[in-house]
Structures are given as structure tokens and as C-alpha cells.
Amino acid sequence: QLTGRWYSIGLASNSNWFKEKKHLMKMCTTVISATGDGNLEVTSTYPKGDQCETRNSLYTKTEQPGRFSYTSPRWGSKHDIRVVEANYDEYALVATQISKNTGSSTMVLLYSRTKELSPERLERFTQFSREQGLTDEEILILPQT
After folding, report:
1. How far does CA 93 lie from the centroid of its chain?
2. Transmembrane region positions (predicted)?
3. Closest by CA position to 87, among listed 115, 57, 110
4. pLDDT tens string 86-127
């Protein structure tokens, strides 16, 4: 149900890289496809300067439905990813707990099937991010590209 094309509309995080890069961030496109064994292949394309950069990740399913794990080959960080709520025709709210040897951080993503989402959905994203302990400074509605 999560497969197909999504736009990243909102991003919230208390990680250092987010604080440093926040002012540069823009909406990106993510395409999710299921592998034969029930894992998810996630391809994100985002603007970087004058060009687009693509990143591929494989989310491994866990025994709990809607929950996946991912280990970043680049940073060695472990990601515990869960789909918090979704109406798969419209939006998905995804929370990720990231842990690495330097500490842990929280990230919340708001995916949408279109480039625009209702104010109610945006408000729900903001509210949910606050419930995860994130401050308003750490919550971002991404500018359209």
C-alpha cells in the first residue's frame, strides 16, 4: 500500500545535520517499491544545487506490520522506521528513530501523493512531531521544487 510515488512535504528532526542543512532543504520525490520478500526499496530524488541527486535504500520488514529497519552503509546508523498513520491514496506519516554510536535522534516525515496537502494534514504532522519531543524550530514544511 505504501508503494508508488510520494512527495516529501514535511520533515522534522532533532539531528545536527538537519539543523545545519535545514535552510537548504526542498521537497523531494520518493518512489517506494516492494521486493519479492516483502521489503521496501526506497528511492529518493532531491535537488542539490543545479542537479538532482538520487539515494537508494532498502528497508527491511520486521515482524511488526508497518515497521521496518534500515542500516546506513555510509554512516553506520540504525533506523527503526514505522508508518504511524496513513491514508495511502493521500498521505503517510512516518516516524524514524535513528541510533548510532554518537547518540540517537528522531525524524518524522510527511509523505503526500500530491505536491500539496490540506492544512489539517500539515497541522497533524506538526502536532505529531511535537508529541515526539521536537520543537517548532526542528519542524519544517518543505518548499516546493
Report:
1. 8
2. none
3. 110
4. 999 999 999 999 999 888 999 999 999 999 999 999 999 999
- Round to whole Å and give the CA distance between 8 and 105: 19
Is the CB of residue 70 less than 8 Å from the CB of residue 81? yes
- Quick one: cell of 42? 526506497
C-alpha neighbours within 13 Å on the C-beta side of residue 43: 10
Q: Over the stretch 44-75, which tens digit does the pLDDT of each residue have?
A: 998 777 778 899 999 999 999 999 999 998 88
This prediction's pTM: 0.91
Alpha-carbon distance 112 to 98, whole Å? 22
In the numeric block, the cell 497541522 is attached to 123
Residue of 28, 92, 94, 140 with catalytic role: 28
Residue 88, classed as helix, strand or coil, is coil
28 is annotated as an active-site residue: yes
Taking the C-alpha atoms of residue 122 and residue 40, their distance in angstroms, rounded to an integer, is: 25
- Please give the CATH topology (third level) of the domain spanning 4-141: Lipocalin (2.40.128)
